[in-house]
């Protein structure tokens, strides 16, 4: 079976000395492609190198909403320059991780700043017709408002936690919805309802590792999550939707490839 982990921070400090090992094991388990988004400009080089050293790893460039700090607007120029440099890189797949995160944010200045960075990065993506990898926490409607005004090339709403209605609004705008560890907890009734009833053609798998531990790792006192968990997360999804694991693997993989045709090159060459 062929799986894609659409959101994994394999450059995270927790993976420092074991990222190669994790990558090999994930490949062995059928997680053939891993998309690694950047979160701040300091990680750009590492992520690029990681992708070029491992054939199944692809990267996106962006500044995460929680990495947005005052007086760093020049980082947006650095991002722009880098995107122009790597636009023809076959491992570079989009703009992200960008977005809005209003959890525990009570400072209007931070909200304004997050919006400024988000809008500017939407413009960069639009200029180069690049897909977006979006992080959205307690901000779905505001984010939808921004996206409705633009002409972006779709993307992935990672770790989607909004309502069924919001999910459909994102789908109408050409977005896929990423689901991972959160669907493995019985208490997460809304997310489990969404992932069971939305069209499978709009769903992609992700781990958000090393974060977002699935229930079994949590129960075992696990320290970190990894792309190796994708098949088990996909099994939970297959159970929830009452379909086969093969169908989950095939359709979710196809969804990602439709969004990012560059991946086809890798798939054709790895068969
Ligand atoms: Zn992330």
UniProtKB/TrEMBL annotation:
<feature type="binding site">
    <location>
        <position position="7"/>
    </location>
    <ligand>
        <name>a divalent metal cation 1</name>
    </ligand>
</feature>
<feature type="binding site">
    <location>
        <position position="158"/>
    </location>
    <ligand>
        <name>a divalent metal cation 2</name>
    </ligand>
</feature>
<dbReference type="InterPro" id="IPR018228">
    <property type="entry name" value="DNase_TatD-rel_CS"/>
</dbReference>
<dbReference type="Pfam" id="PF01026">
    <property type="entry name" value="TatD_DNase"/>
</dbReference>
<dbReference type="InterPro" id="IPR032466">
    <property type="entry name" value="Metal_Hydrolase"/>
</dbReference>
<keyword id="KW-0479">Metal-binding</keyword>
<dbReference type="InterPro" id="IPR001130">
    <property type="entry name" value="TatD-like"/>
</dbReference>
<comment type="similarity">
    <text>Belongs to the metallo-dependent hydrolases superfamily. TatD-type hydrolase family.</text>
</comment>
<dbReference type="GO" id="GO:0005829">
    <property type="term" value="C:cytosol"/>
</dbReference>
<feature type="binding site">
    <location>
        <position position="135"/>
    </location>
    <ligand>
        <name>a divalent metal cation 2</name>
    </ligand>
</feature>
<feature type="binding site">
    <location>
        <position position="97"/>
    </location>
    <ligand>
        <name>a divalent metal cation 1</name>
    </ligand>
</feature>
<feature type="binding site">
    <location>
        <position position="208"/>
    </location>
    <ligand>
        <name>a divalent metal cation 1</name>
    </ligand>
</feature>
<dbReference type="GO" id="GO:0016788">
    <property type="term" value="F:hydrolase activity, acting on ester bonds"/>
</dbReference>
<protein>
    <submittedName>
        <fullName>TatD DNase family protein</fullName>
        <ecNumber>3.1.21.-</ecNumber>
    </submittedName>
</protein>
<keyword id="KW-0378">Hydrolase</keyword>
<feature type="binding site">
    <location>
        <position position="9"/>
    </location>
    <ligand>
        <name>a divalent metal cation 1</name>
    </ligand>
</feature>
<dbReference type="GO" id="GO:0046872">
    <property type="term" value="F:metal ion binding"/>
</dbReference>
